[in-house]
Amino acid sequence: MDPSPTLDSKLPSEAVETKKRKKRVGWSAAASSPCALVSYKELPEYMKDNEFILNYYRANWPLKQAFFSIFRWHNETLNVWTHLLGFVLFLGLTMTNLIQVPQVSDLIAFFTRSFPMSGDINVSHDSQEIFMRTTSTNLVDLKPESVVMPVTRWPFYVFLAGSMFCLLSSTVCHLFSCHSHHLNLSLLRLDYAGITTMIITSFFPPIYYIFQCDPLWHFIYLGGITVLGLFTIVTLLTPALSTKKFRGFRALLFSSMALFGIIPGVHAAIVNWSNPRRNVTLAYELGMAMFYLTGTLFYVSRVPERFKPGWFDLAGHSHQIFHVLVVMGALAHYGASLVFLDWRDTHSC
Fold it and tell me: Global pTM?
């Protein structure tokens, strides 16, 4: 017959049970705390956007905790940082251009000037040109030269400002949209306005500098894209169009604005067909178009998380890829803008 349990034998087992009970209570409290990460099924309806991202959501967080979540891992962390770093990059490029630091601001232009601009330039001619350019900078030229005033920079800075506004509004949206339904809707509209502004302002450097000697085309093309952009912004201010149901419609609006650029692009290629900078400029602009269109395809298709739901919750999902491609597209357009500036500084009307 087993001896009856003593008080001393009960104490260890009760302590273990108490510890387990506290652990369960602690886990339950953490799951129900306002700053816990939740699953897609636990989200309020207004936050359910991508059903292939299953976990690591923030929902109804206070603003302070939402702000400091920039240093925590959740499924928006890389969305925030990709465009925050992009904003810092473009802010740095803007400052270096404003204070005229050629070592940084003209880095891309340096590389474009180092390569032949057209196929009919042979090696010997290119070498002679480089030699003459080098000697002309080291020797005193006693012949008077016509002074060419640098072209105005405001269209270039309009593009930089539009890019920074887009990247910053996207950062703010992804960081704070977890606070409340009202703020979520407001920040989504701000994000769409930022994307539209970036598309509009991207037209300013190429159209202004290519058609600088024909102001009529300034008015037609810049006026056209501005009206189309304002229509897009007003349309997207409708709350219903901010829902996931109209994701494809929003992508169509943004794509139509970008495709509007085909008309002035073909026109510019025709009137500047003999321009030696044509090939370099087209390479940059085609690169920008490919980055933006590829990003849009990722945005709409939700690849790769569509094929492996839950695998890409923290890193590698479609919206993060879309963000990276947007920054790459903006950098490609920045390179093209430097080519436009360098050309117009030496070729006025």
Answer: 0.77
